[in-house]
Amino acid sequence: MNIKSQKDFFSGLMFMGVGVAFAWGATGYTLGNGARMGPGYFPLVLGILLAFLGGVITFTALVVETVDGDKVGKFAWKPLFFIIMANLVFGVCIGGLPSIGLPPLGLIIGIFLLTFISSNAGDEFKFKEVVVLATILAVMSYLAFIVLLKLQFPVWPVLSKF
Predict the structure, then answer these.
(1) How far is CA 129 from CA 6, 65, 124, 132, in A?
(2) Is residue 70 in some structural domain?
(3) What is residue 22's predicted lDDT score, i.e. its pLDDT?
(4) Which of 53, 54, 55, 82 is most enclosed, with most CB atoms within 10 A?
(5) What is the model's pLDDT at position 24?
(6) Which domain range does residue 26 map to?
(7) Is 12 part of any domain?
(8) Residue 64 in contact with residue 4, Cβ under 8 Å?
(9) Per-residue b or e along 62-80, where b marks 16 or more CB atoms closer than 10 Å to that residue's CB
(10) What span, in angstroms and rounded, lies between the C-alpha atoms of 19 and 42?
């Protein structure tokens, strides 16, 4: 068996792995049926569809000829590091770290930190553009999650715990 497109082959395997994991995880919840869906129904269907899509992509990578074999290039460590770090910092800002006594810093500070950290993943950093983007994201997130959806999580840091 000859792999004709490495990128598609490994992408398909990744989709199949994530799909199977979602479908397997969904079996721990009540599934229900199409008319009365349980909490596990959507993840199960999504996992099956994702695994099927991965199978199609993997099969295509084995059958359809590509010009250069679509080789997998170097691993991009810098973007991976900054995107993962930005999400971890955002999670800490929303929930805090009780184990070390760090209270939640809130949604607004979390979004600004998320935007500034993740913007370092690219090749260029423009401070003014990042400030504008962070401000727009913070305002829109506040309106969507706090005002419209009425979700209960901290918007600003709790100053009494500092």
Answers:
(1) 36, 42, 11, 5
(2) no
(3) 92
(4) 54
(5) 94
(6) 6-63
(7) yes
(8) yes
(9) eeeeeeeebeeeeeeeeee
(10) 12
Q: How far apart are the first and last CA of the chain?
A: 62
Q: Give CA–CA dist 34/48, Å, rounded.
A: 15
* CA torsion, ordered 158, 160, 161, 162, to nearest 10 deg: 100
Helices 107-118 + 77-95 axis angle, to 10: 170
Report the 10 Å Cβ neighbour count for 34: 7
Q: Verify that 36 and 58 share a domain, yes or no.
A: yes
Which residue is associated with the tokens 């840091």?
157
Assign 32 to helix, strand or coil: strand
Q: Could you report the average pLDDT of every consecutive run of 10 residues in the chain (162 residues)?
A: 84 95 90 82 93 95 78 84 96 91 92 96 93 97 94 82 50
